Amino acid sequence: MTRPITAGVDGSQESLAAVAWAGREAVRRGLALRVVHAWRHEPHEAVEGDRETQARWVRGSTAEAVRAVTSRHSGLEVCVDVLEGDDVETLVEAADGAEMLVLGSRGHGAVVGFLLGSVGQQVIAAATRPVVLVRSGDRPVAEVGGREIVVGQEGGPEDSAGPLAFAFETAAARGATVRAVRAWTLPPVFAYSPGSLRLLDEAGGPEGYEKKALAEALAPWRERYPDVPVVEHVEMGSAGQVLLSVAGRAQFMVVGRRARRTAVGARIGSVAHGVLHHADCPVAVVPPV
């Protein structure tokens, strides 16, 4: 069964940008688009209207988002679901049956970033499929002109299989180049064992070892997507800083997720958090496979 691309909408400009992006991506991949509006009746003086009034507003704002995307893509198959229930549970369930879930992001700042809100962070941490965050200022022009699909790689080939697969699929659909980024730092001297020192020496030193590891991780994806150009980028530094240093040339960024639960809620890992918070282009967070 073919999965649709699913976009969450809530009437905000950020979510309208997410639906527009999802529509373009669905056309590229030859997939259907599903638009989901998760809502709950809020019987509070700060929220105008009774249940039916709020329901009409929800249906109207969702219809507006759908009209906007279908006016640009007349042949696009679109289905709409207005679902009353918990925001996080509804969106996570919607993601489970999707190729990807696309959400709006409010942009930079210590308070207004969508990811830093409890709903966005919990959805990304719990989703079993990739979640894409799109900023309100996203424009189609940013998807052309030689800009790359930037993907972070770490560990062995299996550790980044999910992000690499998603990055190569996206690049193939767009005719774009993949820039695979592997960051590295020097470990403390006491962390070197005789065996690890031998491996480093055989690889030509720490940087040579990292280049070899990146090449091995990319090998199966190069074979599967022989027409996708690849740039191998190995640089010393923290993963988040190195990824953000090349964000200016990216039309899309892909990072892995390291979700864990803590006493203060869900956390998705410092690299994903930093890239989502600071990168201007859409960012996909891909769960472990």
From TrEMBL:
Q: Which domain of life is it from?
A: Bacteria
Q: Name one Pfam family in it.
A: Usp
Domain UspA, which positions? 1-135, 148-287
Matching entries from PANTHER family are given as: ADENINE NUCLEOTIDE ALPHA HYDROLASES-LIKE SUPERFAMILY PROTEIN
Q: Which family does it belong to?
A: Belongs to the universal stress protein A family.
- Spell out the protein name for this chain: Universal stress protein
Organism encoding this protein: Streptomyces cadmiisoli
